[in-house]
Amino acid sequence: MYRSRHNGWMKRHVVALCLGCTSAVVVFAVGISRIPKAPEKHEPLTLTPPSALILPLRQPPATFPPGTYQPNKRESEASGPIDLGDFSAGRDLTYIEDDRVWWESDNDTNDVECDHTVHNAMRTPFERVIELVAERGGTLKVQDTYRPDRIHNDRSLHKEGRAIDLTCNEMSLEELAKLCWQAGFDWVYNEKGSRSNGPHVHASVAR
Fold this sequence. Notes:
Blueprint lengths: L1 H33 L16 H4 L14 E2 L4 H4 L10 H4 E3 L6 E2 H4 L9 E3 L3 H13 L4 E5 L18 E6 L4 H11 L3 E5 L8 E5 L3
Parallel strand pairs: 3-5
Antiparallel strand pairs: 1-7, 2-4, 5-6, 6-8, 7-8
């Protein structure tokens, strides 16, 4: 009698223990499935064939003198106005790294911004103009990209990362402006600059 009761007690506890272990495994597995995956590192844009990246989208204008822009309309018409209410830095910005580029924020200790940060829509024309400049033996210099505050006016597309300021020591700003237009930017301005910001090419994109 005692042995029978003892065996019954053992069986009940063994079953309970097994059920408990099974539940623990299920809970553990569910917990793992709910852990968010780490974001994958963004790789540089590559197109197939690679030559497609440097293939100009447009014919260059015959001339592109200082103080002129393409197309012949306001930036807010060509690239669209700023809309910070619909802008999300975490969603809309991307990071670009390329050793062939001189980045001002990497070389200026007083610069608290990051010139590698641009709007997603900027990525393709930006990488294309890097290729076009490098193909001609030049080094593209990035002076300014995403700037949420400080130096730009309230309607500047720099505040959304949709504008970029560029120079290049190995070619004239007129030639660089032509390459930016060929690369696919929606608005390109061969800007004379000001006291605080010297001559440069300002280019922007629509969202």
